[in-house]
Write a structure and sequence with these properties.
This protein has 168 residues and is an alpha/beta fold. The chain contains six helices and six strands, in the order βαβαβαβααβαβ. Bound molecules: adenosine-5'-triphosphate (ATP) and magnesium ion. The site of magnesium ion has 4 residues, from α1.
Amino acid sequence: MIHIYTGDGKGKTTASFGIAIRMLGHGKKVCLIQFMKKNYEYGEILFFSKIENIDIYQFGSDKLIEPNNPTQADIEEAHGALQQVFLALQDEKYDIIIVDEINVAVAWGLIDLEDQKRIFAIKTKAEVIMTGRYAHPEVIAMADLVTEMKEIKHYFQKNIQARKGIEY
Ligand code: ATP
Ligand code: MG
């Protein structure tokens, strides 16, 4: 099954980690591939890197990407992430593959919508979760499960910045 967690509210990436934890609890194998995140200081990465049965691949840089005006390096990193997704899909060892922020990578033009749609064509036993704002209507139509996190309120509006343990 293919899941998409999208929308402007908080909770997309962390919802995917909730399922990863469930899988790990059952001794299953997890692959986490992150677009636009090269930062090992995230609490979840610090935690996951200490345990077995999860492989983590991060692509991107620690610099901000300008939407619709990505650098060549940003594009290359995103294509590296995409290649890793196809390797994971073909590797029969995974029970779940989380593709974090791929929807944003498509929306910002780092990879093509057609590349994301190719993921749906691969036959795999793995559950696949794709996260990120701005999921394209075509992938929403193709997915088996789509959840939209909707912002009702967020303390960001009160100028509260990202906090350790809550946002990273
Ligand atoms: P989380 O990683 O906490 O599950 P997310 O994956 O839903 O959040 P993203 O859209 O990936 O959130 O946003 C990246 C960062 O912005 C995260 O640190 C997230 O906590 C924060 N964030 C999420 N929603 C909002 C919002 N509505 N306004 C401001 N910041 C937000
Ligand atoms: Mg996220």
